[in-house]
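Support case: user asked for a sample of complex input and structure output to validate their parser. Sending the pair below.
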Amino acid sequence: MYQYDWKNYENIFYASTIELPDKYNENIFVLMARDPYWAFAYWETAESKKEEIKNQIGEDDFKKTKLIIKIFNGELGDEKKLHLQIDVSGQISWYIQLNQPDNKFWGQLGWLTPNNNFILIAVSNCITTPRDTFSNIIDEEWMAIEESYNIFKFTGEEKLSSPYHLEDLRKTIAFKLEKHQAPFSIIKKISQ
Amino acid sequence: MEKGYLCPVLHAHLPYVRHPEYSDSFEEDWFFEAVSETYLPILRALENLTQDNIDWRLTISITPTLMEMLKDDLLIIRYIKHLEKLTELAEKEVHRTKNNPHFQKLAQMYLINFIDLKHYFIEIYSKDLIQAFSHFQELGKLEIITCAATHGYLPLMEINPEAIRAQIKIGIKNYQKHLKQKPRGIWLPECGYNLGIDSILKDEGIQFFFTDTHGILYAKPRPRYANFAPIYCPSGVAAFGRDLESSKQVWSAKDGYPGDSEYREFYRDIGFDLDYDYIKPYIHESGERINTGIKYYRITGITDHKEPYNPEQAIQKAALHAGNFLFNREKQAEYLYDILGKPPIIVAPYDAELFGHWWFEGPAWLEFLFRKIHFDQKIIKLITPTEYLKIFSKNQISTPNISSWGYKGYHEVWLEGNNDWIYRHLHKAAFRMTELANRFKNASGILKRALNQASRELLLAQSSDWAFIMKTGTVVEYAHNRTKEHIINFTKLYEGCLNNSIDEIKLKEIEEKNNLFSEIDYCDFASI
């Protein structure tokens, strides 16, 4: 949405007392990819599940359990590659640094008992992180014309590695425009 | 023969803001301003071009929420009153500025403009701007595309595929209701693309969509023509990528054309500048000063001192900038044609509301650009995506990158510390809506009404605008309230449907208030 001129109107909006529930009393663990490197996760544990586990391991041990999220690299259900394990006791959401663009991740939410038993509460969905650079996969029928990519490399960088560099390109072009020069004619000269 | 194609795209969107419960709703002013400053001036520019037999092409997405507002009787009545009030103010301004010829000339310009707007809105366009845009589509010059129903940010609905499908389906149905045909293309809200969305588009008959630059540049396998030709997703739907340079030249208020010193200064409005008692009848009824749309100064420079606005000089500058833009596109096309061996398509998308609302001279710039393309050169040709795909039907198959056109290029604008709390509620409500749609397959009577209204409330809660406002940090209260209001309305309806305890009075109340999408069918949320 285009940013409207709201800055002067803070006092006009009508305050409301309505509030949403804190929780829905369910066992759920959701992953959301934010960008090539980070994901957001939120979760909830149902009261009935807590009671069940308390009865299973005893009140004292339950007090010593930690709430854990495990993040696996791979398809949903594939536990071969444990990517991260984070203690999220007392939290309801977390930003997770995955640092692996163009990869699949999924997770498990559970309690870790003092005896290191992991009691599963919920399994997340599977996410794919976005890519942060050009694909190395080339279709032989459609060989990429490297010159058409040169303009995106004209930022003083060896390679374009993220939209931040696209932003650099935008700035470079804007600078040239200020000088009343046509950027593409300049690029052509340099590339020649 | 042309060496390249320019595909300008305007994305016209406003969230659904309609407050019958208030006699003076500031939020509705967003809509009134957009009609006066953007939609009507653009229509008039297109009308001028057509009358002069200029061969122009433009693609515009008019979001379903905006279409519904443009057809809403209450908003239309309020818009006309709004114009009448502004006309009265402009008349007073002509009198007040009688000792200052320069300002009086400007006041007269505004007076004529407001009278013209009313004339065009009522007499020429019969209060139906959708029909006015549709007319140009029938002429084959304008391609109107659709959008998700309430501009929901689709990548962050990944765990609710039924909700993604419903946003798309309901958007398409709304387009059909207003334009009596199916859309060929869609503007994904915020250019938000996630893997699999194209398959849903394919199922629903959509042929193309747009991504930001890196949506195509980082596609897999690597696109042969970078972002200067569309790719076909494996589903068969075409994806066009934004061109960086042409976007930047117009887009940036700081570095782009709209920041030029000759152009009208947005932030010097008489709603804030003039004596309080004088301006009070024309600001918000609470007494808070607001923009009126009457502005007497030009940008001048990065200084608080502002020189008076000179419309003639500003228009000359718009013509100059149109020429500069075209010159750069010609150079760009020539360069790319040589290396690609085929004419590139330069996709230049902008928020429509930039033109006219922020950049007062934007519609004039657009008109100049189209005239210059028609008369001054043969290197660049305007084109719509549908026309392009007819000429170049063979395109590379590749999977676009997950991306958006928001800051940093991915989902962070709509998923960060100020707005991440909304998703557990939005996801839960979407799961519940699908549960309802699966459970009550052939509802009728009050149950059907409640299910349809629950669909509306969920869709309204999903508008990406609320998360965006929370992120930007201004008028956050309104965005919070809208999110909460719709989720709570939804939850009450959900419980009422399940427990057979629908509160008919409350239902009627919110049906009247949140009255969009009369054609809605809650079954669109069912599992497939």
